[in-house]
Amino acid sequence: MKQPLKLLPIVLLVGVLVLLVNGRYTQADQLPPLPPPPTFPPQPTTTLVPPKVVAGDSNFVYLPLVLRPEEIGPWVDTQNRAQVVAFYQTEYLASEGVPHGWAGNVGSCNPGSTSAAFKEAVLRRINFFRAMAGVPAVQGFAADYNSKAQAAALMMSAQNDLSHAPGTSWACYTAAGAEGAGSSNLYLGVYGPSAISGYIYDPGGGNYFVGHRRWILYPQTKFMGTGDIPATSGKAAANALWVFDSANMWGPRPDTREAFVAWPPPGYVPYQVVYPRWSFAYAGADFSGASVTMSKNGSPLSVTVSPVANGYGENTLVWEPGDSFGSAPGSDTTYQVTLHNVVIGGSPQSFSYQVTVINPGS
Questions:
Q1: Could you tell me the pTM of the whole model?
Q2: What angle do CA 326, 356, 33 make, to 5 degrees?
Q3: Contact in structure between 269 and 334 (CB atoms under 8 Å)
Q4: Are the C-beta atoms of residues 265 and 213 closer than 8 Å to each other?
């Protein structure tokens, strides 16, 4: 009997054909429902030591700053269209198509490892979303997180199934893999940078509160880990993204570009990364009585607000605009977003910002 999926997020793509264009889903309506994503783990009673990193360790990847446009700092100025376009081209697109270099074997339960260049591509995709959202970059992948996430991804691929609490009877079971499964976003059918885009997309009726997205954009996170298994004969590809940076997740919140973290963020945003669910996170906010209004190029737009669910990264309100975002706009399209009755420290507040959806190729 399967154990309930109640610890960590899963994105499930089994028996469903999903087409990707620049890491973007084009058949989202065919995706199956998602199980609940993770709530905060118990807070440790002792101070945890940050993950061990070793200079030159191929399992620890720093994002080379030389690959970023020089004028871009800790996050993108999304009010600058040219900067957004340049960042999309130099970071998002550059993380596409990198050979995985995987040297393992599912049949013999050898998790192997992907190449340093592939891990760098995954990290670049994570930090593309964080920089666009105005959140400090993940500093790197820690060797211990990578190793356990890789073992978890192997188990998911070998079993052709997903679980946050896999039993010892699972194919290629290891204690390290089980720990990785219990601390990671999990994806079956997609791996690498495309999995990161999938976590931000966060499709499925059971994932209306976008918990996968919230963990990737959680400001306190400094280190993650990635495990990636490409598809092999009879076995699906898999990704495990270690998202619980235990040594830092309970620390003080760092500065962010805005006081809140929204996706899509205020400013110019490439249409390829604008998904049906929009979200607005504010640490400690009470969204129980909040509402959202929107307009598109000045005309009112219907909005469906999702039930509030806390405990997944920062408190967040999620809604779905009554519009389609699956194709390139004929011209820049501006959405006005206003949130009402967001209670912060006992005081109701309103927030208003504009999102301009663009085609970076025009």
A1: 0.86
A2: 35
A3: no
A4: no
